[in-house]
Specification:
Distance between the termini: 81 Å
Strand content: 5-15%
Helix content: 40-55%
Number of helices: 27
Structural class: alpha+beta
Largest sheet: 8 strands, antiparallel
CATH superfamily of the domain at 425-596: Beta Polymerase, domain 2
CATH class of the domain at 425-596: Alpha Beta
Oligomer: single chain
Radius of gyration: 33 Å
Strand order of the largest sheet: 1-2-4-3-7-8-6-5
Shape: elongated
Number of strands: 15
CATH topology of the domain at 425-596: Beta Polymerase, domain 2
């Protein structure tokens, strides 16, 4: 070892004879610029070997790796490379992903020739900007030396060593291209797969991690001392947490003794300065520990990179907002071992929930998570109405009532969606919970809108002066009590008949109910296309017709001599009275049965031609649309609906708006075999689950197309819908097999029963 006080000339003189084949300028640059402590950490022969590795670095070869096996079966891994931001975290992550326990190590970098002027920073000074490079000169170099041991049962033979070298080189090339997020995602992916095999090692409890800061030991760096129990991938998780906080690691020493880890990091903030502000130190201490802990929960996240990025942003917002008491409450809640897996699954599933709800109302996230387990997924009408009434009672203006109604709707939607994602609730229960909420919201909105209009125009009356009733009928998935993720709310508005309102500024009933429909459509806000959007396209004459229709017009339009097209007769199967006047609702349902199940011939040729047009217009060539492609959801639904129309006049049990109830009726009547019925039931539930998995990322009802089977997106889809095997590729292959099986079985049944489309 060279003496710690050896000057540069002494070091150069010692190394020159050992580096005769190395360009003198390379040796001079290395000795002049490398951290002085480095030269006392290794013997001269080792230093010379490092210089030899340095000499191989070029823009096309940004790192060089050597792996030497020690006599005790351990390995010394030496990485010499150009210096990049988050490089240490990337290396630690790959070593852990290759099932290597890091027992000790030292990392060193070229020292800064100059430091930027001092300036106070704060984590609360707005959105952080990811560094485009890293502090210092672009061609700074690092020497990282790790002593590692394969975990029990893991192999680290020549092939794995070569694969590790290739992976390290690929990751550092990403860093060289400033693709820091891509490198983090790639390492996370490999590491999370490895951690998934060791879930039992995740205690869920916040580890006791002691972090101290010292600004007196180094003229340029803050020294962070970390002591903790060792856990799998601790160094990666912690180094990654520092990188996500834009903390640059200039130097580090770390070791593990008796299961206790002792790390020392020499760090700088995003401006290349020491971390001197006590508040900054406290925020860094808190957020680094939480990110480190959260990293071990990423095995529960369908998309780990998405989850980690959202958690990082969540911590930013929490640190900016929270006072001391709120931070303590947040930390106490995050100490619950059930919290991190739930949070990881939630944040790693849906961009929409994070962007549209959690980011804006991040302060509500922990309370909602804390209480969601106590509340049932399905809240009955009475309970929901009571909760909503309490909220609405506090609103004194029309605008406040509208805001309160939609806030309640959004929070309940979030609660239902969260339980569905976190607890894997059944489709039937999920649909029931959404339907109950939709009915209560529509009913309350109708109540408020009617009160507003009656104050202006009086109550609507029929020609005989009796009150004119109004009813909202559910259609589509709403009518069938089959709502899913991002489902719209399809409705039909019907009123009793012609007449006039009773107020001094009275208007015709037709105008009154048209205004009522407009108020309803404006009063219930859809946060994203498809989510709780009131859809009235299934009314008579479609977009060209009035928003509301009198009962007489409904009866005339939907009749054998009326103007309704064959597909509208089929659509009426899903009609169900929802809110408003119960008597009027029952009248419309009775007419539905007389019209749909009249026994009038069903023109199958026209229906099949419509299905052909869907395939042609709604399915892009070379893609699989799980709703509209052959064997998709509509083939299940249409097959059942065709049979309902064709046989419902003979079998009353088929006159239902619910798809699965209708299928059970078809099997009971002998119109569908038990084997076919079971195949259709499984296919329906499977494809509905798949559609939910596609829609929940962006909250968009139009997301119905499968990503390519060999893509990362398909792997994340598989994990979202429950294919969470330790081998992610195997889970994706299993999903692909199930998709093909269910869609093929459905297509064969449809063609066997009705003919080819």
């Amino acid at each position: 070892m060279l003496h710690a006080n050896a000057d540069r000339a002494q070091i150069l003189a010692t190394l020159a004879p050992l580096c005769r084949d190395i360009d003198a300028d390379i040796l001079q640059d290395f000795v002049t610029r490398m951290d002085p402590e480095y030269f006392s950490a290794f013997p001269p022969k080792t230093l010379a070997s490092h210089v030899t590795q340095v000499a191989t670095l070029t823009p096309d070869h940004p790192c060089d790796v050597s792996i030497d096996e020690a006599a005790d079966g351990r390995f010394i891994i030496t990485i010499v490379a150009y210096d990049y931001f988050s490089e240490f975290a990337t290396i630690c992550g790959l070593l852990s992903a290759f099932e290597l326990n890091i027992e000790e190590g030292q990392i060193y970098t070229f020292v800064e020739e100059s430091m930027p002027p001092a300036a106070r920073t704060s984590w609360g000074d707005g959105a952080r900007v990811r560094p485009k490079g890293r502090p210092g000169l672009s061609r700074k170099k690092i020497v990282d030396v790790f002593r590692v041991e394969p975990v029990r049962g893991a192999a680290f033979g020549p092939k794995n060593r070569q694969r590790l070298i290739a992976e390290l080189t690929a990751m550092i090339e990403l860093l060289d291209a400033n693709q820091f997020d891509e490198a983090r995602q790639a390492v996370n992916r490999q590491l999370v797969e490895y951690l998934g095999q060791r879930r039992s090692s995740f205690s869920g409890l916040l580890l006791t991690v002691q972090i101290t800061f010292d600004n007196g030991q180094s003229p340029t760096d803050t020294v962070m001392d970390i002591q903790s129990d060792d856990t799998p991938a601790f160094l990666y998780a912690f180094a990654n947490a520092l990188a996500m906080r834009n903390i640059y690691i200039a130097k580090a020493q770390f070791s593990i003794e008796g299961g206790k880890l002792h790390d020392r990091f020499y760090v700088r903030n995003r401006y290349g300065q020491k971390i001197t502000d006590p508040l900054d130190q406290q925020h860094l201490r808190l957020t680094a520990v939480l990110i480190k802990q959260f990293t071990h929960a990423l095995t529960w996240a369908p998309d780990p990179a998405k989850a980690l990025e959202a958690f990082d942003q969540f911590l930013d917002l929490t640190v900016q907002d929270a006072k001391g008491k709120a931070q303590k409450q947040a930390l106490a809640f995050l100490s619950d071992k059930k919290t991190f897996p739930i949070l990881a699954r939630l944040l790693g599933t849906s961009d929409f929930l994070w962007e549209d709800f959690l980011r804006r109302q991040h302060g509500n996230l922990l309370p909602l998570l804390q209480h969601y387990r106590d509340a049932p997924l399905i809240k009955p009408h009475a309970a929901l109405r009571k909760e909503l009434d309490r909220v609405m009672a506090k609103a004194n203006t029309e605008e406040a009532r509208k805001e309160a109604l939609n806030r309640f709707k959004d929070q309940e939607l979030f609660r239902i969606d969260m339980k569905h994602m976190a607890d894997a609730a059944s489709l039937a229960d999920f649909s029931e919970a959404l339907t109950e909420l939709a009915e209560v919201i529509v009913a309350r909105s109708l109540q408020d809108c009617q009160a507003k209009l009656q104050r202006q125009y009086g109550a609507p009356r029929l020609a005989n002066k009796k009150p004119c009733p109004f009813a909202v009928l559910g259609m589509g998935k709403f009518g069938g009590r089959e709502l899913g993720y991002a489902s719209d709310i399809e409705v039909l508005f019907v009123y009793g008949g012609t007449g006039h309102t009773s107020g001094k500024q009275g208007i015709e009933n037709s105008e009154y109910f048209e205004r009522l429909a407009q108020e309803l459509l404006q009063g219930i806000e859809a946060k994203q296309e498809g989510i709780f959007h009131l859809d009235i396209r299934l009314r008579p004459h479609g977009g060209k017709g009035s928003l509301t229709n009198p009962l007489e017009e409904i009866v005339n339009y939907y009749s054998p001599t009326g103007l309704a097209a064959p597909f509208e007769r089929q659509a009426m199967i899903k009609l169900r009275a929802v809110v408003g006047d119960a008597g009027l609702g029952k009248q419309v349902e009775a007419h539905r049965d007389r019209y749909v199940y009249s026994g009038e011939p069903w023109d199958l040729a026209i229906a099949l031609d419509l299905r052909r047009q869907q395939l042609k217009q709604l399915v892009e060539p070379g893609t699989v649309n799980v709703k509209h492609s052959a064997g998709g959801l509509v083939d299940v639904e249409y097959a059942i609906q065709y049979l309902q129309v064709m046989h419902g006049h003979q079998h009353k049990s088929l006159r239902t708006s619910n798809t699965m109830q209708a299928l059970s009726g078809l099997v009971a009547c002998g119109l569908v075999t038990r084997q076919d019925g079971e195949h259709l039931r499984k296919a329906y539930l499977f494809i509905r689950m798949l559609i939910d998995g596609l829609r929940m990322v962006r909250g968009n009802a139009k997301d119905l197309v499968l990503p390519p089977a060999d893509s990362e997106e398909f792997i994340f889809l598989a994990r979202r819908v429950g294919y969470t095997t330790e081998d992610w590729q195997a889970g994706a292959r299993h999903l692909q097999t199930d998709i093909e099986e269910h869609m093929t079985t459905t297509k064969k049944f449809f063609e066997r029963t009705f003919g080819k489309v």
